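Deliverable D4.2, example record:
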Amino acid sequence: MVERAALIGSWTHSHEEDHDGVQVFRPSDVDFPPSRGRTSLTLLPDSTATLGTPGPDDRGTSDGGTWDLAGDVLRVAAPGWSASYEVVAADDKHLELRPD
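Output generated by the structure prediction step:
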């Protein structure tokens, strides 16, 4: 079972590390190599979330939303978007998610 506390924080997709259908996220303060934009998730203790996506001109966009954890399934939702992931691994250095 995944501990909810392990998911709290700001996470940025490290797509270079993706493997076997698993998306790897690192804390957002990591020094990432240059990229044409990265997806980010900020998961707060009160179940609110901020979802960041690359914009059409390399400026990111963000939307407020919510998240919840049921067993090892993370669900994230924002206006016009929702996703469900199996949490494969979670600690203070990385978050590994497999899209459902």
